Amino acid sequence: MSSRRTEPANETITLALAALPGVDEPGPFQFVLSRHEGQRRVQIPVTQTGRDPELASPAQGRWLQALMPSAREVGPGTWRLGPRQWTRVLDTLEAGGGEPPWRAARALAAARAAFDAEVPGPGKPYRADVQVDEATRRQARAEDLALLDQAVALAGGWVEPLLARAYRKLGWHGDPRGALADCDMAIALDSSEAQAWSQQAAAHRSLGQLDQELAALKRAVAQPTAGASHWHMLGECAGRARELHTARMALQRAAALAPDNPHHATTEALVLEACGELRQAEQILRQVVTRFDDYVLAQTSLGRLLVDHPERRAEARAALDAAVAAGPGYAFEALFLRGCLARLDGRPGDALRDLEAALELSPSMVEAHCELGLSLAALGRHQDALAHLDRYLQRSAWPPALRARARTLVALGFLDRARADLEAYLAADPGDPEASALMAELGPQG
Fold first, then answer.
1. What range does the domain containing 174 cover?
2. What is the mean pLDDT of residues 355-374?
3. What confidence score (pLDDT) does residue 4 get?
4. How many domains is the chain partitioned into structurally?
5. Which of 83, 179, 204, 317 is most exposed by smallest CB count within 10 Å?
6. C-alpha gyration radius of the chain
7. Sheet arrangement for strand 39-43
8. Which residues lie closer than 8 Å to 247 by C-beta, 6 or more apart?
9. Distance in angstroms (rounded) separating the CA atoms of residues 265 and 226
10. What pLDDT score was predicted for residue 5?
C-alpha cells in the first residue's frame, strides 16, 4: 500500500530530539510540523523575554536553517516549507532519534480515523461470531487491518501500532490468539511497556487462561509505565483467582494513584463480597457512597449486599433509591433489585414498574423475566406470567422458577405441564413442602 493513501490533508506532527547532530547545546529540542490546506510549516520554541519573541534556542534555529536554506521564515521560530523540505526535515529528525517514527504514526492515525468513522451495521465478516466461510473471514480481516499492518511495518521498535492491532484483533475480530501474538512481539521489543503486558492479560482472559492472565498483570504493574488502570486489572483478576491479599493490595494501590475514582474501592468491596467478607465489603461501600453519593455502582452494590437480609431491607431500599436517582440510564441492576424488594414486600405493582424499566435498559437481563413472571402471577395475570417464566427457563435451570411456573400452569389449567415442572423441581429439592403439597393436590396423571 502506498503512503499516499494514508496521507491526510491536515496534520500536526510533534517530534523531540535529545540532541541535534553537530550541536553541543544540551536538549531536548522540540519541532512541531503542521500541514493545513496544503501549507506546510515547522515551528520551534520561542520565548517572550522582552517586547518581541525570541528563539528559545538560537542554536536550534541555526541548525534548522542550515538544513533547509531555501525555506521562508514567516514568523519567530516558524518557517514555511515545500513538500520536499517537509519530508527532508521529518526524515532527518527521525534518523536523529526523533520519536515516534512519523510515517508509522501517520499510518496509525489513519487507521484509528477509519475505525472511528466505521458505520455500524450488520455483523462484519471479520468477526468470529459471524457465520461466513473462513476464506471470506480472512480476507475481511486483512482488509480491516491493512493500515495497522502498514503502521507496524514502519514502526521499528515503536510498539504502539502492535498494541493497536492486538486491541483490534481481540475486541473487534474476536481473535485472542492473534492478539496474543502481537502482544508477545510488543513485549519482545519493549518489555517495560505496561500496556503490552495488560493487553496480553486481556487475551489470556478471553482464552480462559486465568493463571497466565494473573502472571501477565503482575508483570504489568512491575513496569515504570504502570498506572491505576493496570493495578485495578490486577486486583480484579486476583480476586477471581481468590488471591485476596494481592487483590486488596492492588486495588488500594489503584485508589491511591487515582483518589477521585470510586471504582477502585468499589471493586475491592466486590472482591471481599465474593470471598465472603461481607462486613468489610459493607464498610468500604459505605465509605464510597458517603464520599461519592451519586456513584451508581457503589450504591447498587450496597443495596445488593443488604437485600437478602429481611431486617435490613429498608437500608437496601435507600441505597437502591439513591442509585436510581443518580443515574437512571445506568441503574438497570438497581431497578431490578428494587423490583425484587417490592415483590418480596408484597407490592407487585411497584415491582412490575421497576422490573419493566430494568428490562428496557438491559434487554439481555434474563433474571428480570423470572421476577416479572412472579410479580405478574401475584397480580393474577397468569398468561403474561407464563410467557416471562417460559422465556427465563429457556436460558436458566434455576429450580425455584420451575415451582413458580408450575403454580402458574395450575392456575391456567395446564396440569400435565405443571406436573412435569414439579417432578423436575422435586428431583432437585425432594424435601420442599410447598412443591410436595402442590404435587399431592394434582394427584397422579390421568
1. 133-226
2. 94
3. 40
4. 2
5. 83
6. 31
7. 11-17, 29-36, 39-43, 78-81, 72-75
8. 234, 235, 236, 238, 239, 268, 271
9. 18
10. 44
